[in-house]
Amino acid sequence: MTAIEQKQPAERVRKIIHVDMDAFYASVEQRDDPDLRGRPVAVGGGEARGVVAAASYEARTFGVHSAMASVTARRKCPELIFVKPRFDVYKAISRQIREIFAEYTDLVEPLSLDEAYLDVSENLKGMELASEIAEQIRGKIRIATGLTASAGVSYNKFLAKMASDQRKPDGLFVISPKNGPAFVEELPVSKFHGVGPATAQKMRRLGIETGADLKEKPLALLQQHFGKSGPYFYGIARGIDTRQVRPHRVRKSVGAEDTFSSDIHQLGEALDKVAPLIGKVWGSCRSGGFCARTVTVKIKYADFRQVTRSRSLPAPIASAEEMAAICQTILAQEFPVEKGVRLLGVTLSSLAADGATGTGQFRLDL
């Protein structure tokens, strides 16, 4: 038995709920504007270099999704309606939702404005079934906000997160301790929370397509290829996740990166590749209710040499467009390149609560 398996507490099964609002930003806009209901809606910039921050379910049927370039989204769905985001409204609704969570437990770990983990093992209502708590919460959210939420219930955070995706939208799914390992074995690793496209591709090269494939790999091999993430992957392949629900977390930065199937050599290509990363990072920053002063661009070349370039402003970055302009300035100084570029990443740091004027690290509900 490995140390990971020994860490899993056998005497006490935790009860974890993951609540995820359904197409939150877009659903708020459809709720507040009847003309948008039943129509494909994208929240975000509709300009040439804009990025989709959120898409309604009607838009998703056309393949439109968050972090997609606006021009691509319009090409996929010519009837797509772009709406400017109203973060003050989203934050106010998020506060309503968190007040509902607080009726049941003090152990709430918000991930963004529209999703959170709740540990209801010892809940304030004295209720035995986490599934009943999840149903009550979903019902209260609908009454208070007019919006729907999906929920996943399980004995750890990883499986609760996976469960909440199973019955979207407006659904509830439970993964019991008895069924957890089998559920993971059947799941494609590309659908694992925490496994991005680059990691999934790397796993495929190792012959890992499903949770069952991942379970067959020894810990040493996973550590060799995935470093610090190796033990985590080894655990979740067995339905084990010992992470606690943490009500407060200090967030230092928000970032995203992408590894390309073929190397890029031109500045224009780099700007096209970095645009969805900017949209994803900026959306996470705004949805979490905080701002940033520093932009960092990571460049990994074909020979695996890696450089990072940063720019800091005296005041918080005002918009995704300003962030994109900073990234463009940084990249323009690196191109043309002698060797191709295989990876680009973008990170926001020097974080502060939205509206704060101080600097340094802040305690954030993320």
TrEMBL record:
It is found in: Cytoplasm. It catalyses: DNA(n) + a 2'-deoxyribonucleoside 5'-triphosphate = DNA(n+1) + diphosphate. It is an enzyme of class 2 (transferase). The active site is at 115. The keyword Magnesium applies. GO terms for cellular component: cytosol. Keywords: Cytoplasm, DNA damage, DNA repair, DNA replication, DNA-binding, DNA-directed DNA polymerase, Magnesium, Metal-binding, Mutator protein, Nucleotidyltransferase, Transferase. Residues 16-196 form the UmuC domain. The keyword Transit peptide does not apply. Its EC number is 2.7.7.7. GO terms for biological process: DNA repair; DNA-templated DNA replication; error-prone translesion synthesis; SOS response. Mg(2+) binds at residues 20, 114. Its main location: cytoplasm. One of its GO terms (molecular function) is magnesium ion binding. The record marks 25 as: Substrate discrimination. It comes from the Bacteria. Monomer. Poorly processive, error-prone DNA polymerase involved in untargeted mutagenesis. Copies undamaged DNA at stalled replication forks, which arise in vivo from mismatched or misaligned primer ends. These misaligned primers can be extended by PolIV. Exhibits no 3'-5' exonuclease (proofreading) activity. May be involved in translesional synthesis, in conjunction with the beta clamp from PolIII. Belongs to the DNA polymerase type-Y family. This is DNA polymerase IV. It comes from Pseudorhizobium pelagicum. The lineage of its organism: Bacteria, Pseudomonadati, Pseudomonadota, Alphaproteobacteria, Hyphomicrobiales. The gene is dinB.
